[in-house]
From TrEMBL, chain A:
<protein>
    <submittedName>
        <fullName>Adaptor related protein complex 2 subunit mu 1a</fullName>
    </submittedName>
</protein>
<keyword id="KW-0168">Coated pit</keyword>
<feature type="binding site">
    <location>
        <position position="344"/>
    </location>
    <ligand>
        <name>a 1,2-diacyl-sn-glycero-3-phospho-(1D-myo-inositol-3,4,5-trisphosphate)</name>
    </ligand>
</feature>
<keyword id="KW-0813">Transport</keyword>
<feature type="binding site">
    <location>
        <position position="355"/>
    </location>
    <ligand>
        <name>a 1,2-diacyl-sn-glycero-3-phospho-(1D-myo-inositol-3,4,5-trisphosphate)</name>
    </ligand>
</feature>
<dbReference type="GO" id="GO:0005886">
    <property type="term" value="C:plasma membrane"/>
</dbReference>
<dbReference type="GO" id="GO:0006886">
    <property type="term" value="P:intracellular protein transport"/>
</dbReference>
<comment type="similarity">
    <text>Belongs to the adaptor complexes medium subunit family.</text>
</comment>
<dbReference type="GO" id="GO:0030131">
    <property type="term" value="C:clathrin adaptor complex"/>
</dbReference>
UniProtKB/TrEMBL annotation, chain B:
<dbReference type="InterPro" id="IPR013041">
    <property type="entry name" value="Clathrin_app_Ig-like_sf"/>
</dbReference>
<dbReference type="GO" id="GO:0006886">
    <property type="term" value="P:intracellular protein transport"/>
</dbReference>
<dbReference type="InterPro" id="IPR026739">
    <property type="entry name" value="AP_beta"/>
</dbReference>
<dbReference type="GO" id="GO:0030131">
    <property type="term" value="C:clathrin adaptor complex"/>
</dbReference>
<dbReference type="GO" id="GO:0030276">
    <property type="term" value="F:clathrin binding"/>
</dbReference>
<dbReference type="GO" id="GO:0012505">
    <property type="term" value="C:endomembrane system"/>
</dbReference>
<dbReference type="InterPro" id="IPR000225">
    <property type="entry name" value="Armadillo"/>
</dbReference>
<dbReference type="Pfam" id="PF02883">
    <property type="entry name" value="Alpha_adaptinC2"/>
</dbReference>
<keyword id="KW-0472">Membrane</keyword>
Amino acid sequence: MIGGLFIYNHKGEVLISRVYRDDIGRNAVDAFRVNVIHARQQVRSPVTNIARTSFFHVKRSNIWLAAVTKQNVNAAMVFEFLYKMCDVMTAYFGKISEENIKNNFVLIYELLDEILDFGYPQNSETGALKTFITQQGIKGQHQTKEEQSQITSQVTGQIGWRREGIKYRRNELFLDVLESVNLLMSPQGQVLSAHVSGRVVMKSYLSGMPECKFGMNDKIVIDKQGKGGTTDEPGKSGKQSIAIDDCTFHQCVRLSKFDSERSISFIPPDGEYELMRYRTTKDIILPFRVIPLVREVGRTKLEVKVVIKSNFKPSLLAQKIEVRIPTPLNTSGVQVICMKGKAKYKASENAIVWKIKRMAGMKESQISAEIELLPTNDKKKWARPPISMNFEVPFAPSGLKVRYLKVFESKLNYSDHDVIKWVRYIGRSGIYETRC
Amino acid sequence: MTDSKYFTTTKKGEIFELKAELNSDKKEKKKEAVKKVIASMTVGKDVSALFPDVVNCMQTDNLELKKLVYLYLMNYAKSQPDMAIMAVNTFVKDCEDLNPLIRALAVRTMGCIRVDKITEYLCEPLRKCLKDEDPYVRKTAAVCVAKLHDINAQLVEDQGFLDTLKDLISDSNPMVVANAVAALSEIAESHPNSNLLDLNPQTINKLLTALNECTEWGQIFILDCLASYLPRDDRESQSICERVTPRLSHANSAVVLSAVKVLMKFMEMLPKDLDYYGTLLKKLAPPLVTLLSAEPELQYVALRNINLIVQKRPEILKHEMKVFFVKYNDPIYVKLEKLDIMIRLASQANIAQVLAELKEYATEVDVDFVRKAVRAIGRCAIKVEQSAERCVSTLLDLIQTKVNYVVQEAIVVIKDIFRKYPNKYESVIATLCENLDSLDEPEARAAMIWIVGEYAERIDNADELLESFLEGFHDESTQVQLQLLTAIVKLFLKKPTETQELVQQVLSLATQDSDNPDLRDRGYIYWRLLSTDPVAAKEVVLAEKPLISEETDLIEPTLLEELICHIGTLASVYHKPPSAFVEGSRGVQHKRLPPRAGSGESTESPDVGQSGPSEAPPAVIPSQGDLLGDLLNLDLAPPTATVPSVQPSMQMGAMDLLGGGLDSLLGGDIGGSPSMGAGLGAAPAAMPASLGGAPAVGGGLGDLFDLGGGVGMPTGSYVAPKTVWLLAMKAKGLEISGTFARRGGIIQMDLSLTNKAMSVMTDFAIQFNRNSFGLAPAGPLQVLTPLSPNQTIDVSLPLSTSGPVMKMEPLNNLQVAVKNNIDVFYFSCQYPLSLLFVEDGKMDRQVFLATWKDIPNDNEAQFQIKDIHLNSDVASNKLQGSNIFTIAKRTVEGQDMLYQSVKLTNGIWVLAEMRIQTGNPNYTWMCWRRPHVRECVSQNDSPVIS
């Protein structure tokens, strides 16, 4: 298991050092600094073995977190733990910086004592931890016996991510469906690869221990219901259901229930968290189509014309559109004309960057550029990197729809109808490229 | 709160100031001081001098202060063991506190204070805490048992904590269960033979129930523990798999990977034709792909594991090539791993896409990555024949870029392509020669020299080219020197008239001016060969080369199996068994996959032990990673070739000489000095003995066998006629004759009992004395009816090999006692050794190779079996009937060579090479893994064949 955990600043000075196992000595702290932080080379692996000691590290801004061990530990677990540790610290004191870590070192030691025992990760849910470890020192000395046992039962309990007795005057929840759509398209407009990776992020402000059930237009569920011949209003336009390649859930979701019935039921943590992640590859709505036309005029001139077409409902607006057209290394000058937005040649990035603030659906826009080249005797042809695009659209390119999110709280007197629910869809570009 | 100020005090005399502050009356000041102490401790200052003062602060009801003091104690108690005792009282008191948080804190901290004297005081509080009413205290105490075990294992056992810990597996709280499992697993690791983690269907059921309820970390502990369980049958295996699969949707990648581990392992037990098996395969792909959208560090761990999974079960991800395409922003470690997997998944179906990608990568910035991409293009050419032409033209394009390292890498892989497709792409040689001057890496130089030598007749100025290398001969690396020597000899044999001077020059350089024994030896061999018989030299040096294999860099199958059992762990990241990087006893246990389910496995990926007697015929093409290549290559190859990351091209350097050359040399004089072949095949002493199949017992037993003689007892698939073992006159009228047979994997002793006395015989029983192979009756002697006078009864007695072992003389001697209502009679008989050849004695080709190399010289023996008129196939089939398996076969100069393996019931392997000369029906067996058995076996073999 994890033998020790060190946090360093960018200079390699140790800010936190907690050793859990006897086989890790003080020299381990220095070994990592010398061999990894101060190494001349770029990092070649997140796992480093120095003198039979293994170091796992992650970096957050300029802070290094390193877990050390001499055993054959579960490597995936160590990294998951390091990420979790970062989450916990962020939840307690915000950004992970040298300043914040030094200011909270006592707190960090307390946390490390609690969430790692002899190198074994223990409950690391901030919701639970905050019930007894606070920045103002530890609670627990002046509590009643009931309160104490409530804390311990929560930390060890089945619902370790939520504490009892939460109360809100207004029960409210926010659902964000955040998708990033990835595309690689050939110059002829053929889709080489496309996939959507999406996340459902939930902010819940609900009283008590509510039981939630989340439903979406998952093809498997809809088809199952379809066979029963009951649901699905006919005549509704658009795709009815989507095929999800794979999804993963927050630990609050009952996985065995999902496996058997494909229903997503859970008791949510309080506040913001990521309910699920998913991936789809079929029937993706590609919000933009990029049509490139590159013509070489002689040896010293290139003519580039790029048309972008928006492919969604006219009533919707895409935002933050940016098209990046790569230019050859020997470019000497560029003239650009665009119908909409602003375009600029950025010599340092070897690209023409064309920005459009907003664009409605079913529209098209065009840019043309003349690129002058310096004559070179370089035999190597220009590799023509793909044209990439960034954007944000107010719908889910995968076609995912939230069908319902039901809330049941039997002990308190509020029902599903009293909960105010907000759903928002945001589609962003991932790696969205068209070859030219 | 600005605690950062504690880090800044660096002035002298600080310790004294702190001392004063620690003893201050004001609580706040005390706390401040302790914080300063901890800050100093963190940055590595020695503040152990403050020990008594800090410990004095322990008696406080301020929990924050208490925790800080505990932290200090954990760090310094070891250096001040006597003073640490002062703290014991507080701990013991805290363990009785009303607040469960304080009880847990005390027991947790106490376990971290590694002072012997303290551990004695720890036992009582720990015992109480293990049975505490509060689950938080119990889960902390469970881990504390592991801590205590680490300090003093004996104490833990004596105090009975292990049993209490086992009871906690049935605890009502899932987190207590998870921690108890973690603690037990750790303790069990240091007691490899104890049955500590007594896993049975009931406990497994408890674990599976807790799995649904505990934290993500707890799920990992439980899944890792489940992976070490061996289900009883395929049904249990399936039901566990069914309950583990939901974990594949967990957001925590470690949970997913641990679940994958359990499934990969238990899948082995499922029959392949089962519907569920297919379902499971399909279920595994999506979560593995999803892992690639995790943070880069986890992606790296996932990719290293996928690399293993793809080797074990390529079918899982064969359609997922695209997800391994490299993204521009991937960290370099992710890029390199993705590239590796891309090559493994490359097939005819996706090769066009893969090539397009690889070409892109070859223009990137990172040198290692570019090199690997270039090399990958070459690998694609070798793997998918249809793509070879495109690969070659891509490589030529890359050579045109004149980027130095790209050119060098390209030349190295083109050499491999020449090997794989001879006489196809030689038109590019001219382009390659243009780049001769820019090559500065040994590997590329060696490759280029090989090409020049190999195609000397087509390169007009080959002699000039090679001569130019010769000038700096002594500055070259061994690899290049060896290659140059061979290339010039080749050139000479092809164009003898113009190059005589050159060859003499290189031979004298190699033999007279060099300190390198490999080089000298090779020089002398050539020299003598050329001076005694130039025609033979031509046949040797310019002989056809064996083909090179398509897949390289495959992990050796037994290691792969072990690594599959370690999915998710460091071992899977390093691709090394835990024993390679873990000190001490931990992790040294070798994990194994469960035995495979029987049906339909032969279509499976490259794997061990899948072959039954009816398996496909032994492959005839010795490929690069194959028998001959390695066999002959090994001790003559330049030392660099044995570097862990064996690069395919390096081995070839030696092979063109040896693979084609020496074996035909040997083939020529088989009657004369076959010992030379053995000499070459023998492993150099430096090779680590890594034979997995021979357990320690085997070694001990082996020595005993030395004395063994043998009896030519006929055996095998047919059963020899019975011989009389016990004469009637010596046994009061009971005559026993018998023989031994092996039927369907069971050893049987066939007996005929004849009553030659006047009275009825009853109550038969049989017993064996201890013997060399632990033969013992597997059941009672089944003589149900009384044996009347002059009656003969035939019985078959199944034997097991699990009986007590004792050396016998001769080795295969068996002393038997038979009892009846009259008396007890003793006799001894001798059984054929081939009785002990087990059915799964077919060694994997790779393992065979590795083992063959390891055979020490003096373990070899050879002898001839005369006057048997069989061809190699018939012989091979016959031998297979006796569980002597042919691993590989090849033909050299009209001689068939069979490479064979045999496994004895006690796990000892015997390897053999058999030569059959078609014209002259002699069978030559040579090279035994275990010399001790050889005599026995040798004498047995003739009857087996005939």
